[in-house]
Amino acid sequence: MSTRPPGPKGVPLFGNSREYAKDPFTFLTQVSEAYGDVVYFGLGPLDTYMLTNPADIERVLVSEDAKFHKPDFQDDAIGTLLGDGLLLSEGETWRKQRELAQPSFDPRRIAALGETMTDHATAMVEGWNDSEVRDVQLEMARVTVKIIVDAMFGSSLTDERVRTVQENLEPLGKRFEPDPLRFLVPDWAPTRENREYKQSISILEGIIDDVVAERLGTENDPSAAVAGEDGAPMDLLSVLLRAKQRGEQTDQQIRDEMMTMLLAGHDTTALTLTYAFYLLSQHPESEAKVQAEVDEVCDGETPTVADVRQFDYLERVLQEAMRLYPPVYVIFREPQVDVRLGGYRIPAGSAIMLPQWVVHRSPRWYGAPTEFDPDRWRPERRASRPRFSYFPFGGGPRHCIGKQFSMMEAQLILATVAQAYELDYVRDRPFSLRGSLTMHPEEPMGMRLRARERIQTR
């Protein structure tokens, strides 16, 4: 049995990091096509093993998950940003934080947040005008920030604060774009990138501190947010503040969870909606089907959680958007012991990469994989594919805690927009992609708004 999988030849010190940094999406696709289910390559000093067989991915995320942890090989920057929040914490810390947060994501509580979501979506649409051009990515990011702060902080942000959040996300994103030289520059070095990154974190922490200060003393007030069965508000910040009263949380832990929720809790949903609107603009027949379904189910009324349960085609559109453009396009794990996967030994401490981008677009699991086809999510077609041929929310014990929240939010926003407008992509060429912690369009996603005639004549 070979001890090292095949892979592209790299150069000393840098490995294949230059090719990866130039275009991670093309690089990952090409090495998968050339070398198979398990590929070895170097990202700077990091030995990386990419797995693209759903059976191997399932072992890492589910059946043998105890052997694999979140990676220690990433630089300190992400730790500075998210600390010991749910996304990065491990072991007993993660288990306690996950258990503590779970009631905030209880299905009954999520369902009760439907009106909150549609209120924000409606306010967004009411600020639009026929024939104007809007950057749909920016619009979706703004509305999802407002929703996550309302739903999980039990608070609200002014438009000025929302703009401040958006302005400071750009330096954060740049810090995690692939860069073959980054491992040579320590985080403490006073480079322009490091200074801007730390300044943005400081500004976002200031916003979080302000929200926490505003909420102090209201964490037991049933009128402050959507309450649980005992009458206490169940937004995540209230839950954490009550845990602090019991001596179970520190100020730093609350900061880490709130920063994680602010960033991870809105970005992926905003991107899913951005890509869905783009795909619908390129496929008018699918856009018409979404509009017809929304018109039939909602009958001109504001979409509700009950309507979400009746959406079929609309949900499939979102699933297909996340297949073609998964906001989280790679997941990393680090084996704690030597493991064998795909016939190869993978040593402890190395990097295991699970690339949604590659697996979701593989012709092994999807016919015409680059085509937009929401019908591939009909139950009979979906059942024919391996479980982990699609994993936009990860999988196993560490699957995204906000999956149900995100899917309901995306459906309600998409339905609210579809009632009122068609969105036409303004460029005559496809957009480019930029890799960071999540997958972003390289340029603004300008969409021309076309008010629907049915709405205009009512």
Brief write-up:
This protein has 458 residues and is an alpha+beta fold.
Q: Give the helix/strand class.
A: alpha+beta
> Roughly what percent helix?
40-55%
End-to-end distance: 70 Å
> How much strand content do the residues show?
5-15%
| Mass-distribution shape | globular
Low-confidence stretches: none
Q: How many DSSP E strands?
A: 12
Give a short account of the largest sheet.
Answer: 5 strands, mixed
Describe the protein in words.
With 458 residues, this protein is an alpha+beta fold. Helices cover 50% and strands 11% of the residues. It contains 19 helices and twelve strands. The strands form four sheets. It has a five-stranded mixed beta sheet. Strand 1 (38-43) and strand 2 (46-51) form a beta hairpin.
Features:
alpha+beta, three-stranded antiparallel β-sheet, 12 strands, 11% strand
Topology:
Layout (H helix, E strand, L loop, with lengths): L16 H6 L1 H12 L2 E6 L2 E6 L2 H10 L4 E2 L6 H7 L8 H11 L5 H6 L1 H13 L6 E3 H18 L5 H17 L16 H24 L20 H10 L5 H32 L1 H15 L6 H4 L4 H12 L6 E5 L3 E3 L2 E3 L4 E4 L1 H5 L18 H4 L20 H18 E5 L7 E3 L3 E3 L4 E6 L1 H4 L2
Parallel strand pairs: 2-8
Antiparallel strand pairs: 1-2, 3-5, 4-12, 5-8, 6-7, 9-12, 10-11
Helix pairs in contact: 7-8, 7-18, 8-9, 8-12, 9-10, 12-15, 12-18
